[in-house]
Design a protein that fits this description.
Blueprint lengths: L1 H13 L16 E2 L11 H14 L6 H6 L2 H9 L10 E3 L3 H14 L6 E5 L4 H14 L2 E5 L4 H4 L4 E7 L11 H10 L3 E5 L18 E4 L14 E3 L2 H4 L38 H10 L8 H23 L4 E2 L10 E5 L3 H10 L2 E2 L1 E3 L3 E5 L7 H16 L2
Parallel strand pairs: 1-11, 3-4, 3-5, 5-6, 6-7
Antiparallel strand pairs: 2-8, 7-8, 9-10, 10-13, 12-13
Helix pairs in contact: 1-13, 2-10, 4-10, 5-6, 11-13
This protein binds pyridoxal-5'-phosphate and (2S)-2-amino-4-(2-amino-3-hydroxyphenyl)-4-oxobutanoic acid (3DJ).
Enzyme class: hydrolase
Subunit structure: Homodimer.
Cofactor: pyridoxal 5'-phosphate
Length: 393
């Protein structure tokens, strides 16, 4: 126990990113390990959102659309681009992840006439599977569930597109984006990556890996706030052939011409649909400032160290009383999932003790570690509290 205390204290004292925690408005009594579901608010967000309400909305009123707001989806997209390895002009922030998955899947099927199958990670977060099923029905294609390790078994000349997650939301496993992308490409198909659980916490190389399309949440590790809009990546090479199935005026070449027929904008703006959500975009825009000058390799190193230390604490304090589901090697994201038959009750007990993780059915306790604000002390307190509630039965 003393050893764990000393390790936590030393790691926190030597943490090169420790200064960032002060950027976040966190209750010091709470151990918050759910930033992989809803990121914590950076302190600077509240005042800036209030300013936008007071000045841009209150004083400039509708004049703010052309002056400041209409291009916000592309402007904020440019801030996300370096976090996912995308050159400028390829990322836009618009709509929810679910809606964006719909857009990119339909667009990918339309790019592959004659190919009649959509491959989907069978263990995916439900929304991806639901949307893919609907896209299959609407486009007259077939849905093919796949185990990501056995992609070769399902990929072939019938595959139009494969929808994959970089990090599995339940187990925390990190998939090899380079290898899976290469496999999908070898079958002549396109790949869509869901980056919800990886964006902002580990280096991602969309351009270098020639990824076809990608989407991701902004309210998790990117801290954009509840319901902040998702991002979509469409590389330059596919933009001309990207046909948005939700061709709203937001993606029109000249939205304010109010033309009777749809003509897509020439670049990434064609992935937009309707009016942008300015207050949420403002919160996200400000939240992203915390990454200015940050090295994602350092963020990743801390995420691995935090999750590794938490697993050590669990091993030492809980032993065989609980099963660690998340990979112990570096093929993990920034969460640790534990399996226990009373997972739901245990999460309830932890929450009552101000340790916040989450429960995922049927039996998983999930703890997300946000390298920008979590500490090694958080990891130790969470494991110690868990050991107490488990031993109390
Ligand atoms: C992998 C994954 N995709 C998509 C979503 C969410 O989609 P939406 O933002 O539309 O609720 C989540 C989490 O909610 C997720 O974990
Ligand atoms: N998007 C969420 C929401 O609106 C409410 C509660 C949770 C969420 C989540 O993000 C869940 C998350 N994607 C997960 O990995 O379980």
């Amino acid at each position: 126990m003393t050893d764990l205390n000393e390790r936590a204290a030393k790691a926190d004292a030597e943490d090169p990113l420790a200064y960032l925690r002060a950027e976040f408005d966190l209750d010091p009594r709470v151990v918050y390990l759910d930033g992989n579901s809803l990121g914590a608010p950076p302190r600077r967000v509240a005042g800036r959102v209030e300013e936008v309400v007071r000045e841009q909305w209150g004083r400039r009123l509708i004049r703010s659309w052309p002056e400041l707001w209409w291009d916000a989806p592309e402007r904020v997209g440019e801030k996300i681009a370096p976090l996912v390895g995308a050159a400028p002009g390829q990322v836009v922030v618009a709509d929810s992840t679910s809606v964006d998955i719909f857009k990119v899947l339909v667009a990918a099927v339309r790019m592959a006439p004659g190919r009649r199958e959509i491959v989907v990670d069978a263990a995916t977060f439900p929304t991806d599977g639901y949307i893919a099923e609907s896209v299959a029905e609407l486009t007259g294609t077939e849905l093919v569930p796949a185990v990501v390790d056995d992609l070769d078994d399902v990929l072939g000349e019938r595959t139009a597109v494969a929808l994959l997650n970089q990090v599995d939301y339940r187990t925390g496993r990190l998939y090899d984006m380079a290898a899976a992308t290469a496999k999908v490409h070898a079958a002549g198909a396109r790949v869509v990556w869901d980056l919800c659980h990886s964006a902002g916490v580990l280096p991602i190389e969309l351009d270098a890996l020639e990824v076809d399309l990608a989407v991701g949440c902004t309210y998790k590790f990117l801290n954009g706030g509840p319901g902040s809009p998702a991002f979509v990546y469409v590389p330059h090479r596919l933009q001309a052939s990207f046909r948005n199935p939700l061709p709203g005026w937001g993606g029109h070449r000249e939205p304010f011409a109010m033309a009777p027929s749809y003509e897509p904008a020439p670049g990434i703006a064609r992935a937009r649909a309707g009016t942008p959500d300015i207050l949420s975009l403002t919160a996200l825009d400000v939240a992203l400032e915390v990454w200015d000058g940050l090295d994602l390799a350092a963020v990743r190193a801390k995420g691995l160290a935090l999750t590794g230390f938490f697993m050590d604490c669990v091993d030492e304090l809980l032993g065989k009383a609980i099963e660690v589901v998340t990979p112990r090697d570096e093929w993990r994201g920034h969460q640790v999932s534990l399996r226990h038959h009373q997972a739901r009750e245990l999460i309830g007990e932890l929450t009552a003790r101000e340790v916040i993780g989450d429960f995922r059915p049927p039996d998983v306790l999930r703890f997300g570690f946000a390298p920008l604000y979590n500490t090694y002390g958080d990891a130790l307190r969470a494991a110690r509290t868990l050991a107490e509630v488990v031993s109390a039965g």
